[in-house]
Amino acid sequence: MKLLQKIERKQEEKQKCLAVLLDPDKVEMTGIMKQVETYVSAGVDLFLVGGSLISGNNFYILVEALRRQKDIPVVIFPGSNLHIHSEADGILLLSLISGRNPELLIGQHVIAAPILKNSGLEILPTGYMLIESGKPTTVSYISNTQPIPADKEDIAVCTAMAGEMLGLRLLYLDGGSGAINPVPPKMISAVRRNTSLPVIVGGGITSGTKAEQAWLAGADYVVIGNGLEKEPELLDQIIKVRNRLNQPTTAVV
Ligand code: 1GP
């Protein structure tokens, strides 16, 4: 079954999922396989690899290291059209629909299209929405776009609806890596109520409570990156929350 179908099926079954984002610049490559094993045995649902600015040479090595395990899909979360590696299972083809930078709405996609077509990667067309999160983030700076204000649910909803009408298949609401404030649950639930696409939420999820709030508001996938780099124990906390929410008696929206 294709990855996108699996994601949609999880959504239909109201199963909450956890994605771990590995940033090639931040991961300590010497201990990577051990770290990957920990994530696999904890029951992570998806690996995302990437970041809005990758300055080192670890991107390819990291994708290959992650692919040595076969249980969990590896998906590229690209910061630019330089971040393509056919060893991964898929790639979030991000259109930054919250911004008005044509390069990130369509420009880089045009350049990457022939490479992607031949890559064998499953393409996951994703409406990527940056949400204001307390301070400028690397992604807001690098993308040269203005995030959606955190209290403007109506803008987020209309943006998400437009993305869905344009045929995108996933929505990613992101506060940006290391966000001070995660995407407000009120905004997630407004998007959830008004669109039917699987919703990924990330940025600043640094506790089980924040993950739970995002899931309860309607996120299908919660992404953790920075929080886990700083506090590895966070993984168990968040996995426990996910498992509790996925028990039949506590099934949520
Ligand atoms: C960033 O959503 C991801 O694009 C993850 O954010 O690193 O803050 O967990 P964090």
Structural overview:
The protein has a single domain (about 15-240), classed as FMN-linked oxidoreductases (TIM Barrel, Alpha-Beta Barrel), CATH 3.20.20.390. Helices cover about 40% and strands about 15% of the residues. It is built from 10 helices and 8 strands. The protein has helices at about 5-10, 30-40, 60-65, 100-120, 140-145, 155-165, 185-195, 210-215, 225-230, 235-245, and strands at about 15-20, 45-50, 75, 90-95, 120-130, 170-175, 200, 220-225. The protein has an 8-stranded parallel β-barrel, surrounded by 7 helices. The two termini are about 25 Å apart. The mean pLDDT is about 95. The structure holds SN-glycerol-1-phosphate.
The CATH C-level class name: Alpha Beta
CATH topology: TIM Barrel
Q: How big is the Rg?
A: 17 Å
Distance between the termini: 24 Å
Helix content: 40-55%
From the spread of the alpha carbons, the general shape counts as globular
Oligomer: single chain
The CATH level-2 architecture is identified as Alpha-Beta Barrel
